[in-house]
Design a protein that fits this description.
The complex is a heterodimer of chains A (158) and B (530).
Chain A lengths: L2 H16 L4 H4 L8 H4 L1 H11 L3 H14 L4 H13 L3 H14 L4 H13 L3 H14 L5 H17 L1
Helix pairs in contact in A: 4-5, 5-6, 6-7, 6-8, 7-8, 8-9, 8-10, 9-10
Chain B lengths: L45 H12 L3 H14 L5 H9 L12 H17 L4 H14 L7 H18 L4 H12 L10 H16 L4 H10 L10 H10 L4 H5 L1 H8 L2 H17 L3 H17 L3 H11 L11 H16 L3 H5 L9 H17 L3 H20 L3 H21 L3 H16 L14 H11 L3 H14 L4 H13 L3 H14 L8 H10 L2
Helix pairs in contact in B: 1-2, 1-3, 2-3, 3-4, 3-5, 4-5, 5-6, 6-7, 7-8, 7-9, 8-9, 9-10, 10-12, 12-13, 13-14, 14-15, 14-16, 15-16, 16-18, 18-19, 18-20, 19-20, 20-21, 20-22, 21-22, 22-23, 22-24, 23-24, 24-25, 25-26
The chains are: A mainly alpha (158), B mainly alpha (530).
Chain lengths: 158, 530
């Protein structure tokens, strides 16, 4: 599944769960299951990502970040948007922050790994591949995608 | 501050409906502990105001909100009553759920009314502004941020009025409300507990102090520090269902099952009489858990059957749905009734993590009774629920379901003869669970993952390793029947007859008043005396 398709798919699943009686509102300990619902800038940023309008996405996510500085998903989305703008230093900053906030954030590990491959840093990509192997003892798309990306990178280099 | 005994002699006019077994509104009278909260309000409403504050301290939401509103009605200039309304609408500040959107609107209206009235003292105005910080920009701020700003505002209040014990106590409560699941040093809890211990020495009959001490010690390594408050609280406020239930959070943590069952039985009766279905379900789940540790299976069964007749629970809370799914799962698991476990039916809850309880129990039950095809099917359900929760960013419950999925997959692998894989999955489940605190909605997971790892090692004839895991599990989940049984069997298999006998003896002590002849107890009797 492409990452954009996965992001959209995740959004649809998220919406489906959010439509249920208040799982999000009733969750006692989750960091922020409901951010897209209560932060218009974040929701608009995700729509900009769907349209691949990366500059607009960054602007909107930055506005949301002021109100939600500790949201791992928001940091991940900022990293993703900067990565697509080829501003890798900023992408790494936000991916690392996402992982700092949630060390088991599957998406952030995959995307930062792929970003490292884009900058030719295989060693760091493999560190995040190893992290994903630990996290995804049971199947997960993020591990498969990063494994594939690393394999393709190696094939290109040989 | 001088404290004054509040004798609750009023009848709260709540309509009794929705509870099939409700029959006694009179139980809503009675003592709620000693609270002193001086105000500038008309002296005729002061006793009622302090009773309302006592209800707030015991999280008695419906009665408390009404009591504060009645105060405001009886003295329209009593602005501090608006603080009480806004405070009680924050719901349980330790559950992380926070106010509902509708509750927040009502609270903001109360705050606006309090400001419009204009409290006669700066202290009262400061209280109103402190609670207002929580509701500021309510729709656009995450609950964690609201909690943090609330704690900060009450810290400032407590510093400004150092001799105001209520300010210290509320600050401690809201500080404890900032404790995160990730921090296993329990820094916020322990800081709150230090404040509360000081207040507890001064005011041993204050409902909030004893209550919040229990919450502040509601974590495995520090639970025993809360025993004094737990044993005191139910006696301080026996009219409040939550006060009767809350001590069992500590009793469960330390494995004091008889005390847990007794206080929850009283909580259940008060909850039923007071038309509090969610509290009734919650108390029953804790009580069933306790009965099963004592091998009082018949009492557990009766309690489950009675609870299932209760109607009128709040669909916006998962308290009742959780108990409805958890109780039959516990009943099967704790008795090792694997075929029964495999046949449990999903409850149709709209909360995915509640449905996961049943699929987990079914899957492990099916694996342990040899039906691997059924076990795989139920594990697939866990996978779907896990993915959906991850996608919904519901990290906490996604992790809880991941533990269940890993464990179910481990038992399937064991059934397929892939022992190494099985242990890898089961160990990962146990490690993951150790870093995710249990939720306050539940007395405990359906089974501790590390105890289940011990079971698996025992099946694989690795008794030394099994015993190690059982004993590690005892640190977080002490005095459990199945743990002692597994520990005894592991010690016996390892050839340590003295240790085996000691564990069988513990099992017999635990089950001394068993109302059911569990086969394990018969063999324990023989082996304990060897």
């Amino acid at each position: 599944m492409s990452r954009l398709a996965r992001l959209i798919s995740a959004g649809l699943l998220c919406a489906a769960i959010a439509a249920l009686p208040p799982i999000a509102a009733a969750d006692a300990v989750d960091a922020d299951p409901d951010l897209a619902k209560r932060d218009e800038d974040y929701a608009a940023g995700k729509r900009a990502v769907e349209k691949k309008d990366w500059s607009q996405a960054v602007r909107l996510f930055q506005r949301a970040e002021v109100r939600n500085p500790d949201n791992a998903d928001l940091q991940n989305m900022l990293g993703y948007s900067y990565r697509n703008l080829k501003q890798y230093d900023l992408a790494f900053t936000h991916y690392k922050r996402a992982i700092e906030l949630d060390p088991r954030h599957r998406g952030a590990h995959e995307y930062i790994g792929e970003a490292y491959l884009l900058t030719g840093d295989l060693a760091n990509a493999e560190k995040h591949l190893a992290a994903l192997r630990d996290i995804c003892l049971l199947p997960c798309e993020e591990l498969k995608d990063l494994e594939r990306a690393v394999a393709e990178y190696r094939a290109r280099k040989t | 501050m001088k404290l004054r005994l509040i004798q609750i002699s009023f009848a709260v006019a709540l309509a009794v409906h929705g509870l099939a077994q409700a029959d006694d509104t009179n139980s809503q009278t009675g003592p709620l502990g000693k609270v002193s909260f001086p105000t500038s309000c008309d002296s005729k409403v002061q006793p009622a105001f302090e009773r309302a504050v006592a209800m707030l301290h015991s999280f008695w939401y419906s009665a408390g909100e009404k009591a504060f509103r009645d105060v405001l009605k009886d003295d329209p200039q009593c602005a501090i009553a608006a603080w009480g309304i806004a405070s009680i609408l924050m719901s349980n500040p330790l559950a992380g759920q926070g106010a509902s959107p509708k509750g927040a609107e009502q609270a903001q209206a109360a705050i606006d009314e309090g400001r419009r009235i204009g409290a006669k003292t700066e202290r009262e105005r400061d209280y109103i502004e402190a609670v207002a910080t929580y509701y500021k920009d309510f729709p656009t701020r995450p609950e964690k941020e609201r909690q943090a700003s609330r704690a900060k505002a009450y810290e400032a209040l407590a510093q400004k009025y150092p001799t105001d014990d209520e300010a210290q106590i509320f600050f401690a409560l809201y500080l404890a409300g900032t404790q995160t699941q990730a921090d296993q040093t329990y820094a916020a809890y322990l800081r709150a507990a230090a404040i509360l211990e000081n207040e507890f020495r001064k005011y041993p009959d204050h409902p909030g102090v004893a209550h919040y001490l229990i919450h502040s010690y509601d974590a495995p390594p520090i639970a025993d520090k809360g025993l004094a408050a737990a044993r005191k609280y139910a006696g301080i406020a026996p009219a409040a269902p939550h006060a009767l239930h809350m001590p069992s959070h500590i009793f469960t943590r330390v494995g004091a099952w008889e005390e847990s069952a007794a206080t929850n039985a009283r909580s259940l009766e008060v909850a039923k009489a007071g038309n509090e279905p969610d509290e009734a379900y919650h108390a029953t789940d804790y009580m069933v858990y306790a009965y099963l540790q004592l091998a009082r299976d018949a009492e557990a069964r009766r309690s489950i059957d009675a609870a299932m007749k209760i109607t009128g629970s709040n669909p916006a809370r998962f308290t009742a749905p959780y108990a409805i799914a958890a109780m039959p799962a516990r009943y099967a698991f704790e008795r090792g009734a694997w075929q029964e476990a495999a046949k449990l039916q999903p409850t149709g809850s709209t909360y995915p993590f509640v449905e996961a309880i049943t699929y987990f129990t079914r899957s492990v039950g099916a694996s342990r009774s040899g039906d691997l095809a059924a076990a795989r099917k139920d594990a697939e359900q866990l996978e779907s629920i896990h993915k959906a929760l991850l996608a919904a960013k519901n990290t906490y419950w996604a992790t809880e379901v991941e533990v269940q999925w890993l464990a179910a997959t481990g038992w399937i692998a064991l059934g397929e003869g892939r022992s190494d894989e099985a242990l890898k999955f089961m160990r990962a489940a146990a490690d993951l669970e150790d870093h995710n605190e249990k939720h306050i909605v539940t007395p405990g997971r359906i089974v501790p993952a590390r105890e289940l790892l011990g079971d698996m090692l025992l099946e694989l004839k690795q008794p030394d390793a099994a015993l190690k895991e059982y004993e590690a599990s005892q640190l977080r989940e002490p005095n459990r029947f199945r743990n002692y049984l597994g520990s005894a069997r592991a010690a016996e298999m390892a050839g340590d007859r003295a240790k085996a006998a000691a564990y069988y003896q513990k099992l017999l002590v635990l089950a001394k008043d068993a109302d059911t002849a569990r086969p394990e107890l018969e063999s324990a009797k023989k082996l304990a005396s060897r």
